[in-house]
Amino acid sequence: MQNDVNTSLLVVDSGNTHVKWGLYDGRWLKQGVAAQEAQGEKTLLGREWRALREPGRIVVSHVADMRAKADLSELLSRWKAQPQWITAVAYQCGVRNYYTDPAQLGSDRWAALIAAWELQRQGCLVVDAGTAMTVDALSDTGEFLGGIITPGMDLMQKILIENTASLKPGNGKFRDYPDSTADAIYSGAVHALAGAVERMAALLATTLGRTPDCILSGGAAQQLQPRLNVNAKVVDSLVLEGLVLIARESSEMPQ
């Protein structure tokens, strides 16, 4: 039993909207997700972690605010293992970070890039369609060349509605030719995000000499995928997979 405790790994992706987590021991034993604002002991996340077996290691990517980090730290304190809060570095797991200040790159983007490189082993676009959408470029030799950040699907619509007096919230759908305001707002957001991805794909294609594949993750990935004119694959747990790889590189753990 002691061996099980020592080899199990809890990885946590603490984003602006949700906390995704997984318990790994050579395979995924359990995964879950909870709203970022619901981290107290009596919430869904608190109840799920009460029933979780004690991990031997804890590795966390956190990009939300300091209050959320304090709440998460309190929940993690139930276990003996001290959490490892990762930051992006210049080189890790075969990926070279060409950010001017490597540590400024979000830890979630860094973990996603590492997972995408392990998955593809060639140049590709890494897209996280969450609260914000990031579109990051990987070269054929594992170099993170850079990337863009835009408002995500929900945020783009919210900003438009809140800053335009005549527009009202609604449950829009994607239409080729929208004939209602709600559909026009939703379709516009989809086109804007898809266009950003496709422009980055075209740019990376000139570097690689071929059209890159796109690895998609985040809450809006399923909505965005069918609207893209590039080969796109959805990998829901991309950041968690990257955190496992980061943990594996720094210690012996099951493959």
Describe the structure.
The protein has helices at residues 2-7, 44-50, 66-76, 107-120, 153-162, 181-208, 221-224, 238-249; strands at residues 9-14, 18-24, 28-35, 57-62, 84-85, 91-92, 95-97, 124-129, 132-138, 143-151, 213-217, 232-234. The chain has 255 residues and is an alpha/beta fold. It has two domains: 2-85, Nucleotidyltransferase, domain 5 (2-Layer Sandwich), CATH 3.30.420.40; 121-237, ATPase, nucleotide binding domain (Nucleotidyltransferase, domain 5), CATH 3.30.420. Helix 4 (107-120) crosses helix 8 (238-249) and helix 5 crosses helix 6 (181-208). The radius of gyration is 19 Å and the shape is globular. The model is unreliable at 1-5 (pLDDT under 50).
Helix and strand string, N-terminal first?
HEEEHEHEEEHEEEHHEHEH
Say what the CATH topology of the largest domain is. Answer: Nucleotidyltransferase, domain 5
Give the C-level CATH assignment of the largest domain: Alpha Beta
Give the class from helix and strand content and strand pairing: alpha/beta
**What percentage of residues falls in helices of 4 or more residues?**
25-40%
Q: Write down the Rg.
A: 19 Å
Strand fraction equals 25-35%
Low-confidence stretches: 1-5
CATH superfamily of the largest domain: ATPase, nucleotide binding domain
